[in-house]
Amino acid sequence: MHDDVTQLVRRCREGDELAWEELVRRFQGRVLGLVTHYVRSREDARDVAQEVFIRVHRSLPNFEQEDRFVPWLLRVTRTCAIDHTRRRAARPPAQDVPVENVLALADPAPDPAEHAERRSDRGLVRRALERCSELHREILVLRDIQGMALQDVAELLGIPGGTAKSRAARARAELARAVLALEDEEARSMGEEGAR
Questions:
Q1: For 94, which DSSP code?
Q2: Region(s) of the chain under CATH 1.10.10.10
Q3: Residues 174, 120: contact at Cβ < 8 Å?
Q4: 2-90 maps to CATH 2.40.30.20
């Protein structure tokens, strides 16, 4: 696959629009997945993912390391997501919601899709990730979910390789503790529901 991506990137650099469409199709899920870990809103995540591909398209003609495309793409993705988060934090809310309308905003009952996801292993890991520290969550997402090499993660985060390795081990341990805690909470919750 690595050589396939290298050839695809080379064709994109030469102006092949069909190769660009294939590149976007191949990596859009991965980019969106990474952005979603930084940007909580799915709508915002889609906008940021689109911004990522715009930046990549503009920069691709000058990009000469075709064999390093994936780490570069993930670096651009992370940068765009963090930039978006910072811009969002610097902007005050567009409009305050009157107090009398606050309770009408959210339905406390989970919708069926959310309920099914919460019960799945994937949903459990996603919720456990939310309980991890920001640094550990980022390392887990880059290393274990996005599949980046440890050295690429270290380079992206600006830390030595040994530090990245030890942080990755601590991040996995924190994730394991969070998963166990969630499983315990769910077991207690199920026991309480059964007792009613």
A1: S
A2: 117-195
A3: no
A4: no
